[in-house]
Amino acid sequence: MLENGKISLRQFAILVTLFTVGDAILVLPSVMASQAKEDAWIAAIVGEGFGLLVIFLFTAVARLNPGMTLVEYNKKILGTTLGTLLSLLFLVYFLTCAAANIREIGDFMATQSMPETPNQAIYIMFLFVVVMGIRRGLEVIARAGEMFFPGFILFVILFILFLLPQIHPENIQPVLAEGMKPILKGAMASSTYSSVQLVAFLMIIPYVNQPKHILKSFMSGTFLGSIFLILLILLTILVLGVDGTANNTYPSYALAKKINIGKFLERIEAILALMWFVTIFFKITIFFYSFILGLSQLLNLKEYKVLALPSAMLLMVFTIVLAPNTTFYHNVITWYWPFFDGTFNVLFPLLLLSVYGLRKMVFKQ
Amino acid sequence: MWAVAGILAIAIVIILIEVPRLLQRKMHKELWVFFTLLAAGTGLSIALELHWNIPSPLYLMIAIYKPISTLIYGLLK
After folding, report:
1. Beta bridge partners of A260
2. Is residue A358 domain-resident?
């Protein structure tokens, strides 16, 4: 086995939650408000509900070949040639997603907090931590998640409580003014930003110590993350209004600036940024980990950790060339990325399931 | 030029960190993969630094998903 570590169900659920919240905590409300207007929160509920369905799909795929990762059973189910091809596509997907998330950190730092620092410096600092996590292995990543989690939950609860006084209920009216279409559009964005990227966990499921109960912990992790995202979207719209949310690239950051308790507790947005770094760190690490582990399994290597440093260099280049400017990037994210995620998280798992079923039924293998 | 030197220095540091252990344990296949990745990373970094025009891989993605995106978002307009 390449990965000797074992993680518990609880650690797995925590990783899923942090991953689901990921970059969505900062960017999603804006996308949702521009797609679904006042009904962004309904769209979020629909989208996250769809995300929960996708979890069933993932667990079904994982159960076909217990103890094997995605890359391993691609080969087993589809045969060597097609399986390798599909695994390669998945590796490209993992790397692209990792690069996109790092890029978002760079954009955020450049526009909000460190405008004079070159993006590359921020990428290098962040990649350094990610590589450190990967070289320590899955167990350490999971334990780090467990450590950050209580702080994350505490902050989320305080954040919501502190913002309650500033809610304007009229901001979400009228409900369903434009019918179902904007809701579907928003639901697509909401699911692909959060749960419909969880395919990377198919690389981790074999290392959970009680694989029988994986569905429950996968579900509860996604559910918790989804609830948080729905509340966050509802809150941004209630406080900032639709236009304020849609026109702001980082609405929850603006939201945190609004917190003012007795002119004493204010400007706590840096803590929100910190929370975002934590969640996006886990997202990037899991994508990058899946890439490295997948590559080593594809090539039958004996160790995956040696690939972390050189791959990080590749990832860095990938992050820089990913998009020439922010407008281009946001265009792609809004119009094309949902389908990219859909292909890898819905279409390909369905393909694996049906090919497996066909082989079972027709060839009795 | 300094940036290129810096990139090469990082590559050398990475080699110093990983390669001795790999050589000691005679992991030749791992060495090959390691150097391929490192060469790709270093080469592309230097190319970027010299302002070569490397097209974004996302253009490929746009080309692939353009039809379905136009269709779905057209329906939802």
Report:
1. A266
2. no
Q: Which residues of A301-335 are buried (b: 16+ CB within 10 A; e: fewer)?
A: beebbbbbbbbbbbbbbbbbbbbeeeeebbebbbb
Q: CB A313 to CB B65 under 8 A?
A: no
Q: Which of A184, A311, A321 sits opposite B37 (nearest CB)?
A: A311
Residue A138 sits in a domain of what CATH number? Answer: 1.20.1740.10
* Best residue of B56, B62, B68, B77 to probe chain A, by most A CBs closer than 10 Å: B56
According to the model, what pLDDT value does residue A224 have? 92
Q: Strand, helix or coil at A186? A: helix
Question: Which of A185, A306, A336 lies nearest to residue B65, judging by beta carbons?
Answer: A336
In a domain, A213, yes or no: yes
Based on the structure, what is the number of domains in chain B? 1
Continuous segment of H or E residues that includes residue A266: strand A265-266
The per-residue pLDDT for A1 is 63
Contact B56 A318 (CB under 8 A): no
Mark yes or no for CB contact B76/A299 under 8 Å: no
Angle between the N-to-C axes of helices A80-108 and A348-362, in degrees from 0 to 180, rounded to the nearest 10: 160
The pLDDT tens digits for A125-169 are 999 999 999 999 899 999 999 999 999 999 888 888 888 888 888
Distance, in Å, from the CA atom of A341 to the CA atom of A330, rounded to the nearest integer, reads 15
Which residues have CB under 8 Å from A10's CB, separation 6+? Answer: A146, A217
Q: Give chain A's domain count.
A: 1
Closest CA to A318 of A243, A62, A310, B74: A310
Nearest to A8 by CA among A217, A292, A224, A287: A217
Q: What is the ipTM of this complex?
A: 0.91
Segments forming the whole domain that contains residue A15: 9-329
Residue B51 belongs to what domain range?
Answer: 2-75
Contact residues, chain B, for A317 at CB < 8 Å: 41, 44-45, 48
CB of B56 closer than 8 Å to CB of A321: yes
Q: Is residue A335 part of a domain?
A: no
**What is the CB-side half-sphere exposure of residue A121 using CA atoms within 13 A?**
7
CB contact under 8 A, A317 and B30: no
CA B2 to chain centre: 21
pTM of the model: 0.93
Confidence of residue A365 (pLDDT cuts 50, 70, 90): low
Alpha-helical segments (H) within chain A = 9-21, 24-36, 40-64, 70-78, 80-108, 119-136, 138-163, 181-193, 214-246, 251-258, 269-298, 308-322, 326-335, 337-342, 348-362
In a domain, A257, yes or no: yes
